[in-house]
Amino acid sequence: MSQAGSMLPEGRDSNFGTERMAGKVPEAMLDQVRQGWYVRACPYPLEEMIGRFRGLKAIDLNTPIVAIGSCFAQHLAHWLKVNGYHCLPLPWGVIYNPMNLAQIVRQSFEPETWEAEEPYWIVDGVFRDPYRKADDHSGAYPLGPDESRARECLAAFGRISRSLLEQTRWAVFTLGLTELWRNRHDGKAYFRMPDPQVFDPARHEFHNLSFQEIVDSLLYTVDTITRHNPAVRFLLSVSPIPLSVTFRNHLGPYIATQFSKSTLHAAVLEVMDARDNVHYMPGYEIVRNDPTRHYTRDGRHVKSESVNLIMNIFKYLYVV
To answer: Which residues, at least 6 apart from 54, have a Cβ–Cβ distance to it below 8 Å?
Structure first.
């Protein structure tokens, strides 16, 4: 399936096995059973996966959109821009976990409540933001050569971020990790493990977000932005890109990745059910359903043609 127009299933496999349910399911429920029956196939038929999923056709080329999150969000933002969508500027850098996302929302809308023990790091003589990763993946977001400039840059970032989140009509959040490093004293989550030049085991600790911490962070993010921008809708997704490294060594990187993704996935769907303006984009399912087709040979990055496929499905589900 390569084109959005081919997403509509021309006819679902009639062999749902529902004939075996005769006499076991109330007659009034048979249609619902047929709709919900799992097709016996591997990989799962994409027409079935997407054909049974309910999106919301409300986006056009003029709809203001922001894409925030992991490096997969950068792929999505690039695609939106190249294809003529109204993708707003993206000053947030790369954000991997929902706690970082909630912190940025707090800095944007409630800066008076944002008090960090480490407002910045100094790395190679440059003041840097511990809570945002630079777009070029060079490390913590650069703020300037001195404390005065760093504070000005942080204040300006909060104002710009708020303005964009108030303007957007769709906010696309792609979540990547549950594992993070944080300050032991105030609990603030960094974008990654602290740089060797600033790392202090008495101050810095590893933490793995729980399901409830993720839900709480997402609900805070959604509710805060909605309070200031009642017209906004959210499109949440889980990045299919595995962890580069885990600090949960008793699991190993592969199993730690599945833990992280499954917890994020469950939390995202929980929040979608809890808020009417929250929707879901099943990019994670599309990639993981047929990994040998969609990943490059390193097993981590998604092929460009697969990004295009996901975005064609985005168009089918959400574009007018």
So the answer is: none
Q: Where are the domains of the chain?
A: 1-52, 57-318
Residue-wise pLDDT for 123-134, tens only, equals: 999 999 999 998
Structural fold of domain 57-318:
Rossmann fold (3.40.50)
Distance CA 19, CA 193 (A): 55
Strand-pairing partners, residue 182, are 189, 205
- % of the chain at pLDDT higher than 70: 93
C-alpha distances out from residue 129 to 77, 108, 144, 270, 279, Å = 22, 15, 10, 31, 30
* Chain Cα centroid distance, residue 109: 20
41: tokens are: 């196939």
Alpha helices in the chain (DSSP H): 30-36, 46-51, 71-82, 98-109, 147-167, 211-228, 253-274, 283-289, 291-294, 304-318
Distance (Å, whole) CA 275 – CA 222 = 8
